Amino acid sequence: MADFAQQRLNMVESQVRPSDVTDRRIMRAMLxxxxxxxxxxxxxxxxxxxxxxxxTKSATEGEPRGLLEPRVLAKLxxxxxxxxxxxxxxxxxxxxxxxxxxxxLAETVVALEVDEEFxxxxxxxxxxxxxxxxxxxxxxxxxxxxxEGPYDAIFIGGRIDEIPAGLVDQLKxxxxxxxxxxxxxHARAVIWxxxxxxxxxxxxxxxxxxxxxxxxxxxxxxx
Length: 223
Prior knowledge:
Layout: H1 4-16, H2 24-32, E1 53-54, E2 66-67, H3 70-80, E3 87-91, H4 97-105, E4 108-113, H5 116-128, E5 134-138, E6 151-160, H6 165-168, E7 171-182, E8 187-195, E9 198-206
Parallel strand pairs: 3-4, 3-6, 4-5, 6-7
Antiparallel strand pairs: 1-2, 7-8, 8-9
Helix pairs in contact: 1-2, 1-3, 2-4
């Protein structure tokens, strides 16, 4: 029988800690949240590998989705600078693993998902694990979820071509939005900080992540 607790420890010590993740709250959350609960039985042996775990074979828009590589996920969460009293929007929560980690750091998490199967999985697993500060909602990812905003932080769990203005508008003054922006070959984590009516945008580390549905730049044609 697999020793998942030991695998969680190995993940943190060999993948996360050496990758400039210094927030002990994130490492503690990754030790406590059973990542294997968010993947199908056949993929549980792969749950703690240093790689993305694909859970869909195709997507109508974007790329096949699943769980982000642990190192990338931890660094993105750290970039968002979540505080204990924060209300956080998790855009593209997938089966709910990212929402569980964020819920360990924040006061409340709104987990938005467009895929109904993912949303059902997230709702069930998060409830089974006792997360009562996460609300899973469904809808187009690019529109966010203004009903519960504005948010202290918005976490986008994947890669985007561009950020819709309506999404950053759901940030509080001083709020942060993090995402991976770029191409499948070259992409970097980016943080947007709201300062009044303006936004400070800074690139951070290189990261690989699937392109999320709803965040694909419209193609233009030149004559």
